[in-house]
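Reading is simple: each integer encodes one residue's backbone shape. The lines below illustrate:
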Amino acid sequence: MIKLSATHLLYLVEAARWTILLSLLAFVGGSILGLPLAVMRVAKSRLVRVLATAYIQLIQGTPLLIVLFLSYFGLGILGYKLIPLVAAGLALTLYSAAFLGEIWRGCIEAVPKTQWEASDILGLNRFQQYAYVVLPQALRIAIPPTVGFMVQIVKNTSLASVIGFVELSRAGQIVNNSTFEPFVIFACVGAIYFVLCYPLSLAARTLEKRVHVGR
């Protein structure tokens, strides 16, 4: 039986750093796009709400694998050849934005209507209502589900291997091709994913309890 060497283990750990980097790119990019989507979902304009809803439903109804293919192979056919990291980051950003936008939309709507009414009485405009009244309260509600969704982002980075990006899952495949010890290799890959995801899951549950206690 071939044991996992220190070199192979180090290779997997180094690949995990790319998984973390891709997860951060997806989360930051998804947050930048997701917040406007959440605000658009609760806008007064019906057209704005329809546009945001259409985007969210389109992305949520499309497998992430297809979004990855479109961002890498599709854009490549159109003449925009992206390196795997950029293509994967773009696809995961679009994917994350749709889900974060819907999560945060629910958090904004969870703010009591009396808060909106009070800010109207104070003469605040729409921007001031969001900046000083609604978003600070929605942020507190949004932290647990947002942290929980980060776990999904980390796990979904494994699909980036289909476009040639060497993250943790792809690194496991490469090491397995040289050692032919799939149980040992992928057990180690799973353990690394667990180390990355479990603290986030634990944090999400803890924060959710604190939010409920605060209420």
Remarks:
- Residues 6-214 form a domain with the MetI-like fold fold (CATH 1.10.3720.10).
- The helical segments are 6-41, 46-60, 64-77, 84-110, 113-121, 126-156, 168-179, 182-214.
- The first helix runs from residue 6 to 41.
- The chain has eight helices and no strands.
